[in-house]
């Protein structure tokens, strides 16, 4: 098969790229390794419950509403704006998130220790380049050691000493002294965050976005896993034996995996220096009400290292349509180093430890769990190490020379939201048209 344009991967960025090519009358094909498109932006329905692959919320900066997202075929009447209700489990209670702006809600002894440490925080010498140093110098040692370092290390499944300031983007609340002091005083002031409100489908879970982006695409081939890429001949081979020749390729395949598919020594050597975490998302259908403290919680960050998961969330608090009346759809996320995921005993050990922890916390009783669905996200958080920027620049430069232009969160080896993933696809494709 010969196609001028090849889209590799049918997640939201790949679907957006295909839509753009189709709208411009281009000869394209989209290859997706799974039986259905959507990538990680999918929803599983099990009888009375809907479970997204993990927490997916649409934060819009470029467009006023979902209907304005290009090529997404969305109707604003199918969506609603939701005011975020997120918490931090600290000091044996739920504290409003982000915790660094609500430290006055902690028990008095812990609050006082945090404030004393904040007042005595070490001043950074010169420019701050490391994530750990940024946290300690910005919020103090007690806040760092008790909450922010363990939370982020559990999430990204690596030491923060390995990560650069590049890991701190618009998603991480900054050390704003005015807000931190107001938080210690517990004044109740509210400030807008990037995700203070977000869009979410009224019914059907985040799959609504995927279905819109896939609408009327004609040249889509599923269960076609790319197993090899010949750079010189510009040919991709799939597990079914299909070969596709391209002039331009737009892959959303994780960049590290894409490089390895080429068997190119320069690319594989650079890719070997990239790292990431995996996430195991345990989804549970739960009978009855959640405890009062969780009655409105969308998600809860859990920094305690003795608790196996880094976040707990409740889909049915975000949208009642995610479960039948009297039931709750919840999820729990566990971070694992990317290279270790295949060695994890997910059901026999990890799921059991998760349920035991939920019971110990009093959040979910095992006898109330009526179904369980596990999603394994092999590439969840890319690691912004000090060498990440130069490595990605080197990789992209070499790939571009062979007509390969990566797109999306994982194709660009970055940490961005759904809107950014879609936008990166459209911008990249339009630049090549």
What secondary-structure arrangement, pairings included, does this model have?
Layout: E1 5-8, H1 12-23, E2 28-31, E3 43-46, E4 49-52, E5 79-83, E6 86-90, E7 93-96, H2 108-119, H3 131-139, H4 141-156, H5 177-185, E8 197-201, H6 207-214, E9 220-221, E10 226-230, E11 235-238, E12 243-245, E13 248-251, H7 255-262, H8 265-271, E14 276-287, E15 299-301, E16 311-314, H9 315-318, E17 327-337, H10 346-361, E18 369-382, H11 388-401, H12 408-411, H13 418-432
Helix pairs in contact: 1-6, 1-13, 3-4, 7-8, 8-11
Give a verbal description of the structure.
This protein has 433 residues and is an alpha+beta fold. It folds into three domains: 5-41 and 205-274 and 385-432, FAD/NAD(P)-binding domain (3-Layer(bba) Sandwich), CATH 3.50.50.60; 86-185; 276-382, Polyamine Oxidase, Chain A, domain 2 (Alpha-Beta Complex). 31% of the residues lie in helices and 22% in strands. Strands 7-6-15-16-17-14-18 form a seven-stranded mixed β-sheet. A four-stranded parallel β-sheet has the order 9-2-1-13, covered by helices on one side. A three-stranded antiparallel β-sheet has the order 10-11-12. Helix 1 (12-23) runs parallel beside helix 13 (418-432) and helix 7 (255-262) packs antiparallel against helix 8. The model has no long low-confidence stretch (mean pLDDT 95).
